């Protein structure tokens, strides 16, 4: 499956992602053999976004960057965490290649200028992407 693949993902009312066995195995293989899985999705009618999985190292960096930002409230911490997750989880936005920019601070500063409704939609898309990857990993565990 190419990085350009657009999987048709159905989501049950409880948020569970429905994938075929082949789709789950393709995601697992990408993670195992290439170290990451990316997918281009459309949010809304025409906003194209390329999501990517975050490595364990990137998760640590997200935490370190969050600490360095020194949020002064829980709410601000959640806002910063959302922006950091998007910064590390989005490679392309509407044809703009963000992959060459450092996630923090460059991508972070790029996303923090967006209206909150757009950030919410991007976060929802990233969460759905993460649920898809987690579903594939749960399925792959059954084979071990």
Give a description of the structure.
It is a single chain. This protein is 55% helix and 15% strand. It has 144 residues and is an alpha+beta fold. It has one domain: 2-Layer Sandwich (rbstp2171), CATH 3.30.2220. The strands form 2 sheets. A 4-stranded antiparallel beta sheet has the order 3-4-5-6. Strands 1-2 form a two-stranded antiparallel ribbon. The two termini are 22 Å apart. The model is unreliable at 1-8 (pLDDT under 50).
Write the layout of secondary structure elements.
Blueprint: E1 10-11, E2 17-18, H1 21-34, E3 38-43, E4 47-52, H2 56-69, H3 74-89, E5 90-93, E6 96-97, H4 103-111, H5 116-141
Antiparallel strand pairs: 1-2, 3-4, 4-5, 5-6
Helix pairs in contact: 1-5, 2-3, 3-4, 3-5
Task: Considering the chains and any ligands shown, give keywords for the structure.
two-stranded antiparallel ribbon, 144 residues, rbstp2171, four-stranded antiparallel beta sheet, alpha+beta, single chain
Q: Which CATH class is shown?
A: Alpha Beta
Shape by Cα distribution: globular
What would CATH call the architecture? 2-Layer Sandwich
Helix content: 40-55%
- Major sheet: size, sense and barrel closure? 4 strands, antiparallel
Low-confidence stretches: 1-8
Give the helix tally.
Answer: 5
**Within the CATH hierarchy, at the fold level, what is the topology?**
rbstp2171
Number of DSSP strand runs: 6
Q: Count the domains.
A: 1
């Amino acid at each position: 499956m190419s990085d350009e693949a657009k999987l048709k993902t159905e989501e049950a009312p409880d948020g569970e992602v429905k994938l075929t066995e082949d789709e789950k195995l393709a995601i697992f293989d990408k993670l195992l053999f290439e170290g990451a899985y990316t997918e281009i999705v459309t949010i809304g009618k025409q906003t194209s976004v390329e999501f990517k999985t975050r490595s364990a190292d990137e998760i640590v960096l997200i935490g370190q960057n969050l600490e360095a930002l020194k949020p002064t409230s829980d709410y601000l911490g959640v806002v910063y965490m959302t922006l950091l997750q998007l910064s590390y989880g989005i490679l392309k936005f509407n044809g703009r290649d963000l992959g060459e920019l450092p996630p923090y601070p460059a991508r972070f500063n790029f996303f923090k200028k967006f209206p909150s409704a757009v950030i919410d939609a991007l976060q929802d898309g990233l969460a759905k992407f993460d649920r898809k990857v987690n579903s594939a990993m749960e399925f792959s565990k059954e084979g071990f």
